[in-house]
Specification:
This protein has nine helices and 14 strands. By secondary structure, it is of the alpha/beta class.
Length: about 325
């Protein structure tokens, strides 16, 4: 198969940097452009150790992005910024695949919601793919295998490294303010709470926090069961559901975020039962920049282009 071309809009961010590494490692993908307002004119190789070549950052408006006519455009932009690019690419009426990393299309029926391990069977060869949120990925994977056993809405407590707050300065990505600290925020109605609830088809309650570490997140989910169960039954459900998924690892102990940082998979474990067997607590960890963003985007790009889903993703 001939090489395919790919471009990134919003390439300066943390996820953009991870995507560039994955694309550089891909035997059949060629990076055609990297668009960034702040880095316009600078050499990509000066910012990424993984990239070898002469590409420079450009500052492309939506029409200029559409005019590149690449096979795939990845939109790694803040929420609310994707629409002009999507419109311009739609108008160009080519065969370009769009993978959007923001929340802008995660509730749009016309877009495929790209969490492969849970929704692979919904794939219809779409050219418009909405990449799931990092927390929403961990929450859904923690609940989906036993959602038919539940007696009440699951409650998820989340803690993320500050890379999840992006590169635009705020309290939530200020290492000084975060030192020796834990910041709760958006304690009801968080975007990922709505996202997980929508795609699971049941209400989820979610309380996020930011911690002083840079990357990786953990979600601890409390699940009330309609009838008592044994730990082995719950673990078997998870093992059966994710048996063939190389990027979801079922572990025995509750996983630590330090063990998953810089890795491309999600760990899920703990599976701790209450004495009466009516409640189980499950812990999921992932690297928010990788399985929570860039690696998952690469899974979606690979599927859309007909490559093996895990091409260029180190296992």
């Amino acid at each position: 198969m001939a090489n395919k071309t790919i471009g990134i809009v919003g390439a300066r961010g943390h996820t953009g940097a991870e995507l560039i590494k994955l694309i550089a490692n891909h035997p059949q993908l060629e990076l055609a452009f990297v668009s960034s307002r702040e880095l316009d004119g600078q050499r990509l190789a000066d910012h990424s150790d993984a990239y070898r070549g002469e590409l420079t950052y450009t500052n492309l408006d939506p029409e200029a992005v559409a005019a590149q006519a690449v096979d795939v455009v990845i939109l790694a932009l803040p929420n609310g910024k994707a629409a002009p690019y999507v419109e311009a690419i739609d108008k160009a009426a080519g065969s370009t695949v769009i993978v959007d990393l923001s929340a802008d299309y995660r509730f749009d029926e016309r877009w495929y919601y790209g969490l492969p391990e849970l929704y692979r069977d919904r794939w219809r060869g779409e050219k418009r793919i909405s990449n799931p949120g990092c927390y929403a990925t961990a929450i859904q994977v923690s609940i989906a295998p036993i959602k038919d056993l539940l007696a009440a809405p699951p409650v998820s407590f989340g803690v993320s490294g500050y890379s999840g707050a992006g590169t635009t300065p705020s309290d939530r990505n200020d290492p000084e303010k975060l030192r020796d600290n834990l910041m709760p925020y958006a304690l009801t109605g968080h975007m990922h709470e709505k996202e997980a609830s929508r795609h699971l088809g049941l209400p989820v309650e979610f309380m996020p926090h930011v911690a002083p570490h840079f990357r990786g997140l953990t979600v601890t989910t409390n699940l009330y069961l309609a009838k008592p169960a044994k730990r082995e039954e719950i673990v078997l459900r998870f093992e059966a559901r994710f048996d063939k998924d190389k990027l979801i690892h079922i572990v025995d102990e509750a996983p630590w975020v330090s063990q998953v940082a810089h890795k491309h998979h999600l760990d899920i474990g703990g599976f701790t039962m209450s004495a009466d067997g009516r409640r189980v607590v499950v812990v999921a960890t992932l690297d928010n920049l990788l399985k929570g963003a860039a690696s998952q985007a690469m899974q979606n790009v690979n599927r859309a282009l007909g490559f093996d889903e895990l091409t260029a993703i180190p296992l």
